[in-house]
Amino acid sequence: MTLPIQIAPSVLPADFAELGKAVRDLEAAGVDLIQWDVMDGQFVPNLTFGPDVIAAARRHCSVPFEAHLMVLTPDVMAADYVKAGCSRLIVHAEACTHLHRTLENIRALGATAAVALNPATPASAVENVLDLIDLVLVMTVNPGFGGQKYISTMECKIREVRNMITAAGLGDSIHVEVDGGISAATVGGAAAAGANLLIAGSALFKHPGGLGVAVTELRERATAAFVA
Ligand code: DX5
Known about the structure:
binds D-xylitol-5-phosphate; 8 strands
């Protein structure tokens, strides 16, 4: 038993001057949730959304928000992003000296907790915290910017994470998410490796058919290719 295929946008390519419209359009396009790429300019060389920006967008749609915290200090920032309306916080294993404690703190805030793994970080980094999380994010690019090339060698790690979750009997409670270079051309490989939650930025916002067509196309291709 695994969780259903879900398609979620990264808001990174959106017009930052029109974020309310962007989230309304994404909800209308049928996304399952919205991911906010939070970057602090230290963990990654880019700087993006503070909690007030997300709180402002929160009022414009009803789909769940998750914050992908690409930051050096997730413990310091967590409460503000939950207050801003993010129901899931994704922290990077590489940024957490005490990952178990960080995840417990996020759950104590009332959010669900999740772990992101950069390309060089092994799947084993999450094997001792599966009881605390509802999602593992396998990065398929090096974080910091949208529009990068999908790293297909990550499919082995996606499969390793999926098999770890299945072996623990948690396939119906933990998502395997991928983020970075996901498009109609790459989503099949990620889904076949076991990813059920697909994050896309460029492929959605730059699709010639518009957001709705792009979301439907990704969902159909992921569903057809998915292997638990
Ligand atoms: C990397 C970002 C991107 C973004 C998606 O730090 O997290 O992966 O979400 O970018 P695209 O879909 O344009 O590769």
